[in-house]
Design brief:
This protein is an alpha+beta fold. It starts with a helix and ends in a 13-residue tail after the last strand. A hairpin with a 6-residue loop joins strand 1 (31-38) and strand 2. The chain is 26% helix and 27% strand. The chain has helices at 2-18, 24-28, 61-70; strands at 31-38, 45-51, 90-98, 101-109. The chain contains 3 helices and 4 strands; from the N terminus they run H-H-E-E-H-E-E. It has a 4-stranded antiparallel β-sheet, covered by helices on one side.
């Protein structure tokens, strides 16, 4: 009986070493974001993005996740040389996590939105 208990206890200990507690490794590096674009005369647009696995309502989830694998979630600065003829504020926001790190990015462009990286194209 003691021999059987040692084998069971040994197997349980080996399994505990091989399996991370609660699958923490997979969820710690999760990317999950909500993007919103607000502009005058239009209803706000909101999309979601998840990576690992790739999903959400983003129109190019795979491209956005590929960009975030190598780059950071940033918005380009406004071009100071552009003169506004008409003020047309476009606000872009993203909130959530990238590789498990909480992020919050917001920027309002006054009249011209510069070329945006993949996550911001929706």
């Amino acid at each position: 009986m003691i021999r059987v208990m040692r084998c069971v206890a040994g197997a349980a200990c080996a399994a505990a070493v091989l399996v991370p507690a609660g699958g923490a490794g997979a969820h710690d590096a999760a990317t999950s974001l909500v993007f919103t674009r607000t502009e005058p005369d239009r209803a706000p647009r909101t999309v979601t993005l998840t990576c690992d696995p790739v999903g959400g309502t983003h129109p190019d989830s795979a491209g956005a996740c590929a960009y975030l694998a190598d780059g950071e979630l940033e918005l380009p600065d406004s071009d100071a040389s552009v003169r506004c003829v008409r003020y047309y504020p476009v606000e872009l926001r993203a909130h959530g996590t990238v590789h498990g790190t909480p992020v919050s990015v917001e920027r309002t462009y006054g009249c011209r939105v510069p070329d945006l990286p993949a996550p911001w194209q929706f």
